[in-house]
Each structure stands twice: as C-alpha cells, then as structure tokens.
Amino acid sequence: MELTVLGASGSYGAPAGGACSGYLVRDGDTTVWMDCGNGTFPLLQEHVDPGDLSAVVITHEHPDHCADIYGLHVLLRYGLEQSGLPVFAPEGAEERLGCLVASWGDTFAWNAIDDGDKARVGSIDLRFSRTDHPPPTFAVEAAAGGRRLVYTADTGPEWSVDAFGAGADLVLSEASYLDDNIPVAIHLSAAQAGRAAREAKAKRLILTHIWPQVDRQASVAEGSEAYGEPVTLAVPHLVTEV
Ligand SMILES: [Zn+2]
Ligand SMILES: [Zn+2]
C-alpha cells in the first residue's frame, strides 16, 4: 500500500502551492482519494487519472477537507460522463455540500459513515472512528496486504490513534500547532501527536495539517522528541510505502 500526499496545509492554503488536506491511498489497482481539501484536485491529476479513482473519503465538512469534490464532480459528470463513484462521508454531507453544485446527479454513490463503520474498496479495507473535532469527523484506517495506515483527520486531544489498536505501520497525524500555542483545543500540537503515536506503538509517524504560520522545523523537533524517534513532514507529492 502506498500513500501520496497531495496537500498538507492546516485549515487554509499556504503560499507556494500549499494545498490543504488531501491524500491518495493506493494498493494495486485500487486508488482512494482521502480528503479533497481545497487545492488538492490539481495535484491529484499529476498522480492519477481522476477517471480511475476507486472511491473518495471525506473525513468531515470543513472546506479544507472537502471543497475540491466539486471539481471532481464537474469532470466526471460533464467531461468523462462517469457515474456512481463511491463517496464515504458523514451523514448529510451530500445535501450540505450540494450548495457547491446545482445537482450532484448520479455522479457519486454517497455512503454515510459513522463511528466504527467498515467498508471495503477494491483491495483496501477502511475503518472509521469519530474524533474530537466539532463537526462529525472520522479518522480513517486503511488496511491492505497486512499493512495499516491510520489517518487522524482533524482531532483534539480527547481522541487518539489507539482507537484503531496499537502498532499501526504508519500514522499520518494532524499537528496543527506547537505545544506553547494551542489557540483552540480542536486540533493537536506536534507534541500531542507524537505522544499519542508513541503510546499507540505506531511504527512511523508523519505530521500533517500544520498551520501555515507555524515553523515546520519546530514541529519536527517537538514531534520527534515526544514520539521518541524522528518524525517526518507531509509535503505535496511525497510518496511513501506504508
Ligand atoms: Zn482541517
Ligand atoms: Zn476540521
């Protein structure tokens, strides 16, 4: 299984191509677009033909995780004339995100997700866990070939990656802030992300969703100290084996 980072900027776009949250999870012929934050659809097209996507996962309805679904809709409906692409999203997302378009038509097959839900897309098994973040928000576990990727989506410290069990091969954790400046407790600091991954015995940790004004090297230092091993940063076009 392979993870491709399309965008990793927390909450709003960063200068110089810093798109918001978006990732590709791939295993063989299966490709899942996990979060379609603003700015990620152009980058996606550098890695995959959108007509070849197997499914889309929207972790929650904050625009930095879902806004670019409209671009995929336009291409699939009017460009490629494809229909029925599975979308996994919180209950009601189809209606509320419908304000982005006149009508979704039959472009997507919407599937409401809830805490503990499971789904299979091609060769990838998905599980969802409700996080500590105001709109209904779901962390994602993607498993294939005996490997496990855990993506925190957005969360505060009252949820942890150990909700999916210990020993994930790769944890992709939000780390919006630094420990000495946490404006609102609906996100994690790099230290909180590091501690949670260490306690859940994660085998590798990548930090993402860092706010654009936060010093990334400070995030790496803080996260690495808390995790106990070096962490890496999610950056656009990073491709890594899980
Ligand atoms: Zn966010
Ligand atoms: Zn959010």
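qc> The helical segments are 40-44, 63-66, 69-80, 93-96, 190-199, 216-227.
qc> done
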